[in-house]
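Supplementary Methods, section 5.1.

A reviewer requested that the exact input to the structure prediction be made available. We therefore reproduce it here, unchanged from the version used in the analyses.
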Amino acid sequence: MPDVVTFRGSDNGERPPLVGREDELQQLLDAVLASGEGRPTAVLIGGDAGVGKTRLLGQLLEELAPTTLVLRGGCVDLGDVGLPYLPFVEAIGDLARLVPAVADIPGLGPLLPQGGGSGGDLVRLQLFEAVVAALRAAGEVASVVLVLEDLHWADASSRELLRFLLTRVRSERVTVLASYRTDDLHRRHPLVPFIAEVGRLANVRHLLLRPLGEGSLLQHLRVLAPSGTPASLLSAVAVRAEGNAYFAEELLLAALDAGDLEGRVLPHRLSEVLLSRLERLDESTLGVVRLAAVAGRRVEHELLAAAGVASETALRDAVAAQVLVVTPGASAGSYSFRHALLQETVYDDLLPGERVRMHGLIAQVLADHGGTVGERAFHRERSGDLPGALEDYLLAGAAALARGAPHEALALRERALELVEAGTSSSVPRAELLRMCAEAAGFAGDWGRAIALARARVVALSSASEAEQSSARQALALHLLEADRELDALEEASSARALATATGDPAVIARAESLYARAIWRKLDEDGEVRAAAERALDAAVAADLTEVQADALVTLGALAESEGDVDTALGHFRRARDLAAAHGHLASELRAGYNIAAQIFYAGDLAAAEDAAAVAVARAEELGLRWSAYGYSVRGLQSVIRYSLGDFDGAVTAATTSLGGAADPTRESLAAIGLYVDVARGVKGATDRALSVVATEGLDPMSRMIASGVASDALRMEGQAAAASRVAEEGWERIARVWGEYSLGGIWLGA
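The structure derived from this sequence is encoded token-by-token as follows.
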């Protein structure tokens, strides 16, 4: 194999220290020092691709004391399909190998290699607490540095776990360093609100890497370049690289490899520069590099060995050529590309047939050696094994729900549905896939998507049995109720009830009656019909031992008692329903009951007790990973209103605005509407415009539209714009009347 030009002073492919980042390096060292003294610190490191984030982290790890425990996890770009907690799976897996005792911490199993992530309940809080406990235990052994790279590709659940971790560490010897690409962020990127939120925490710092100045970049190149490299070449490279150290290195190496010491023939496209690095590698080394590119940014030695390409000579040459590096701080035998752009370029350069074959090889290795089912699904699909990918996506979706990751579960299940829609055979009927997707969408708070999927299921079952049609319409009615589209929900619930009655099946009838009672409850003149339907449902559910139907019927009866002013009876029904649902794992019913307990106490005027009850319900929704389900979201809104009523304006804003990163757009706007109470009351500049902006949001649920219209009207009135205030209130009333009916309480409030 021809000689490969390397940087001056390199040894086995390792590069000299990066010049021009001394201040940033010191900031990171200071953060690690503070954490080692019991002041845990996190640093969010942002910068464009190639600006030096990975190099800076690598230099930091080289300068840390040998006793420091370094854990690394990386996020990967798997398109629209996210794998829950992926960077933490890597980091905690390394921790379990280095400190075996942490594997015994209750709740940590889903992140360990043997965990699998399956389970019956969404006990997400236990998992989150287990991660904190594991890092705390590790911090008692040594100072811990947790490095999470490429956060711009992180799944929603990983962001939530990181947020939780940052709010829970108090005196642990733990430093968290998380990097992300600024050039990958756009206005609606989910990392944007996450950064804004955690950036307010006292223990979080933000380090933004700017391009190097021309002087620093030239100094950096002088350190790297072989002796005798013309100054004109270094200057030409520095100008072309525009402060990006990685680009500068690649341009310099390309020129040196080509013997172009005057810089006249420098490539115009970076991809050409990157690919030129591979031209002098032999086929054995190229095989390693190409398979690693298909595997992703980081690849384990075990995978390369199982695939038959991990010869020591080839790996050594790939490292010597500065294409792959041994991953610092990771498990033994782990390699990564020197830069993500290099991995992407190698992958893009593969022939289509090569990609298919290598994805298939990796999928087989993962199947034989216990890889994660989500990764296996991704590689199976890329290899053309669509039936296998479909089944794996379903398994991964179930695991995501079990880990309290509904957003990822929805993406995984919808990918399976797309494959079925495209003609891939499946052991799961299309109608059942639609139900599963709608369920995940509801848990994630994406009610518009849940309704669309549920409607598609109704159509798919239009020729099915009456029992199946009733079940489909019940599910659609439930999603409509969650979106506060009550008139539409009542129509579907009535149809479901008629279909159920025709079956003569007591269990089907009980479910339909309970849902019908719930749908008709808000009609002001139908109390007798509500009571009759709910009691029929309760009696039938008790006879058939249908605990979920019992809980739902009890909540409806409690709501009816509430409307009649019987507070004690209402609370009794709600608490009985909550305990029954919790005992049997009916999560949505439990949250509905918890919300109604807090709401009833609030309506009765006991604000302090209502705040306590709301806090319990919010915590339970967080624990279950259902913060964006219908009642997980609603109880957070209620908590904000209760705090506003108590005069705790800051607390109200916190409840309405904290951790909105995982919310669908309409949900985020809905909670923002509730937060407007405080802004208008305080006379915050721009509050009127923000309120009007929320009013104009399409897809806003009626409750939030009512609040936004009301506070916008109040703000306009206080500004002396009486005509505009009246118009906003009237338009708001007209829009919610289409959903709630002409005589809803919300309409009365707006009318007043």
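Residues 9-14, 116-122 have pLDDT under 50 and may be disordered. These observations are discussed further in the main text.
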